[in-house]
Amino acid sequence: MSYRIVLVDDHALFRTGLRGLLEHSTDHTVVAEAASGEEFLGMLQGLEADLVFMDFSMPGMDGAETTERALERRPDLRIITLSMFGEESYYTRMVKAGACGFLLKDSGIDEVIEAIDQVMTEGSYFSPQLLLSITRRMHLEATTLEDPLSEREKEILIAICRGLSNQEIADELFISKRTVDKHRANILEKTGCKNTAALVVYAIRTGIVEV
Q: What is the pTM of this model?
């Protein structure tokens, strides 16, 4: 399936390179570019787009604030965060803002395509290198959070982190999809998470899953 993509990054050379890779290697179309969060928000009304590659570190409004404001207006957008190593401390802000994908700027085109496909079909994507780095940082911080989830909810959360759909979880646990839907809604409410990406971070921080 072909998706309409927006590139938001303050480096024109990076945008040009990513546009070239996407349009040469995929059927996806880059419909717009912006050099800042302010510019992106200014063009958002009426913009027909499915997915946004969002740089975190931009002058003026950063990626987290831009993401939060954009999703308030267009909750249908899927936003993938672009970052460099060393910026892991900002990921919690991006998750809270509603980003559903995390990708290193030096990723190859195959991983970029994988990220697009997973975000659009399964709801989230974490670069394996970033996920490992985040996990190590969290372990070093020795964060201890009170866990409000039941054992069944933890079981379902682990399955969510494995990338299973609600129907696949239902089949694996021999329960109905409606029951899984209800558990998932309860998990989101109890943890205060907005989406699957936020649930993955929560699961790591509480030690429910390890990478």
A: 0.68
